[in-house]
Each structure stands twice: as C-alpha cells, then as structure tokens.
Amino acid sequence: MSITQPVKGKTAIVTGAGSGINLAFATLLLANGCNVLIADLALRPEARVVVDKYSSRSGSARAVFQKTNVTDWAQLEQMFAVAEREFGEIDIVCPGAGVYEEHWSNFWRPPGSPESRDTPLGGRYALLDINLTHPIRVTQLAISHFLRHRKSSSRKHIIHISSIAGQNPALAAPIYVATKHGISGLVRSLGKLDGQFGIRVTAVAPGVIKTPLWTEHPEKLKMIKEGQDEWVTAEEVGEVMLALIQQDEVNEVIGDHGGQGPLFPVQGGTILEVSKTVRVVNAFNDPGPAGRAGNTVTDMKAVENEIYSLLSGDGWGKAKL
Predict the structure, then answer these.
(1) Of 318, 313, 308, 321, whose CA–CA distance to 110 is shortest?
(2) Where are the alpha helices (DSSP H) in 165-223?
(3) Euclidean distance between CA atoms 166 and 267, whole angstroms
(4) Is the dihedral of CA 302, 306, 312, 317 positive or negative?
(5) Which domains does the chain have, with CATH numbers?
(6) Is 142 helix (H, G, I), strand (E, B) or coil?
(7) If you count Cβ atoms within 10 Å of the first and of the last residue's Cβ in the chain, which end, N or C, has fewer?
C-alpha cells in the first residue's frame, strides 16, 4: 500500500524500546527518518548499537535514550519533557513496555509468597502497574501534549501493544490476560478521538513473539513445542505498527504464505492481530486467534500442572506479613 502519512521528520516516544518489539518498532521509525526517544530501564546490547548509530545530530533522524521506570509517574512526565526539549513537537507515542506473568508479580504467587516482590500491604501489583496503569497514564500525557503543543495539522498517533491474550483466557497468566483485555478496551474506547481531534489510537495484538520476554524465561519456553508452534519475529510486528501509522488502508494478510486479503480502513480503535497472518480484531463476534500459525502454544498444561501443584499445598495465598 502507498504511504499516506510518512514518519520522516516526525518525533516518537517508545517505552520499553530497550529490547523486543518496541526496539524493532523504534529501529524502523529511525530508519524511516523519525526521531525517537527510547524510554526503558536499560538498553540491551542490540539496542545500544541502534542508539549509537543514530546519536548524531547531523543525521536524518536521531535516537535519545532516557532511563525510565514506567511505574513512576514523575519519570513519565520527565520523559515527555526530555522529548520536547530534544526534538520539539511529538507526533507518535507508543507505551509499549510490558512483561508477562513473571514469578515476581504473579496471580499464582500472591503477595507474601517467596518469589513475589508485591508486598502484602503494598496495595499494588507490579504487573498491573507496568502493563496497564503505565499505558493509561502515558496515553493521558500524550493527549495532553498533543492538545497543548500542536504546531502542525498532521494526525497524531498513540499505538499500544495488546496481545492475542486480549482475546483468549489463560489459566497460566490471569493478570497478564486481564491487562491485555484492558488495553484492547482502552484503545476501542478512544477511537472517536481520531475524527474529533486527529488523535488516532490503535493497537497491535501479537501472537507468540520471539523476544527475550519468552526466550530468556525457561518457565515460559516449556509451553512451546518446536516444530508445532511457530514464532513471529519482533520485526514482523514492528512492520505492522509502522503501517498503522503511515497508511490509511491496509491489506489483511491471509494464509501461512502471506496471501493478500481485502483492504480495510485504518482508523481510531483499530486493533490488528499479528501472527503469521495479519487481521482486524473485531469488537463483536470475532472468531478469535485460535489455530493460525504464530498463535499457538501447544503445551500450556506444563504450566497449568505447576499451578495445580501450588494450589494443592498447604496455605496457598496466606501472606506472611
């Protein structure tokens, strides 16, 4: 499809871009001439290479790393202030930082459990703060910035990362699933901002993506059966995210070999599932992600049996204060 809204000369903020999908998206933005503020706790070596490559002020696009804890609202405010100071007007915001159902913030390892970092009297779940509260707050900050600092008539974009977990249940990851349902609901609820204020809020809903979030966690890898389950790459997801920003229409990609389906309009509230196919996720009567290559996790029972074992022990959920 033709590019109707090129990102060249624009500025983006991407949280969680120290690795994974968000790094792939940030790299594509930079390669297409868009300045990027990368916000994360740290940069993996591959992200450091990207930042170093685009650090020069004389290039067509520039990358700036801002160390950011996305659960700290003051640091989120500072992230916007730094981006504005370095680049001026902000055009694209991706609150992409997220984690899976880590043992340190996990429904089946509640506050007070040996592995949990969520304290019994803390009133917080880190997983919720990272995956849902942070994207909500960043979306508020982005809308506020867009309304107060707009210097051009071009459309502004907020692009979220949902998941096929935003459509499916998963006993192995109840809080993660709840956060991704929440992201999809947020994106759909803000759809009308596109027509009223030119602020387009969209999302991708990836399947099983080959990123450190999976590959460096043995407790997750045990759910994957090589030869039966297929990985989707972070770069494939990044390409779809870029299309959501640069195009007003996108072809659905159908079949394992990438056949072209019908055109659909990109508008506020659009959510695109990204597996080995790309399709629109409808709000009502959607067929769901099951069965398509890049969406399957064959051995969920490996984790479910661990959960049943935890629940069968004495005193599950009894916090030690």
Answers:
(1) 318
(2) 174-189, 193-197, 212-215, 218-221
(3) 19
(4) negative
(5) 11-312 (3.40.50.720)
(6) helix
(7) C
- Looking at residue 69, its pLDDT comes to 98
What SS3 class is residue 85?
Answer: helix
Helix (H) / strand (E) element for 74: namely helix 73-87
Q: What tens digit of pLDDT does each residue of 26-62 get?
A: 999 999 999 999 999 999 999 999 999 999 888 889 9
**pLDDT digit string, tens, across residues 206-242:** 987 756 665 555 666 556 556 655 668 899 999 999 9
Instruction: Locate 53 and state its tokens.
Output: 């490559």
| CA–CA dist 237, 76 (Å, integer) | 25
| H or E segment to which residue 141 belongs | helix 134-149
| Stated pTM of the model | 0.92
Q: How far apart are alpha carbons 205 and 76 in whole angstroms?
A: 24
Given strand 249-254, what is the order of strands in its sheet? Answer: 63-67, 35-40, 11-15, 92-94, 156-161, 199-206, 271-274, 278-280, 249-254, 259-265
Best CA proximity match to 160, nearest among 136, 178, 177: 136
